[in-house]
Design goal:
- It contains three helices and no strands.
- It is mainly alpha-helical.
- Helix 2 packs antiparallel against helix 3.
- The longest helix is centred in the last third of the chain and has 34 residues.
- The two termini are 42 Å apart.
């Protein structure tokens, strides 16, 4: 078995570093996509309401959905920060 330095360096470089972030997939990606779509829809509805193309009822519903999405995202963020702080407090 011949292991040259160049071959070893090439194989080492081909491996994903332990510090590289994984792309967001699965439920987290879907949640982020849904959050962005909700905010974009609320923005489009607000613009339509300002130009007279959407009624006040539609605007209130869109703003309510956007507020709910932001509140949910803030709650999830707070829980993640709380869990991280708990991990930091653990004795090693």
């Amino acid at each position: 078995m011949d292991i040259s330095t160049a071959f070893a360096a090439q194989r080492y470089a081909a491996q994903k570093p332990a510090t590289a972030a994984d792309p967001v997939t699965g439920a987290a990606a879907e949640a982020a996509k849904g959050f962005a779509e909700t905010l974009e829809a609320a923005d489009r509805t607000a613009q339509a309401a300002m130009t007279g193309n959407a009624g006040p009822q539609e605007l209130v519903e869109a703003v309510g959905r956007a507020k709910f999405a932001v509140d949910a995202a803030v709650t999830v963020r707070d829980k993640v920060v709380e869990a991280y702080q708990e991990i930091l407090r653990m004795p090693v």
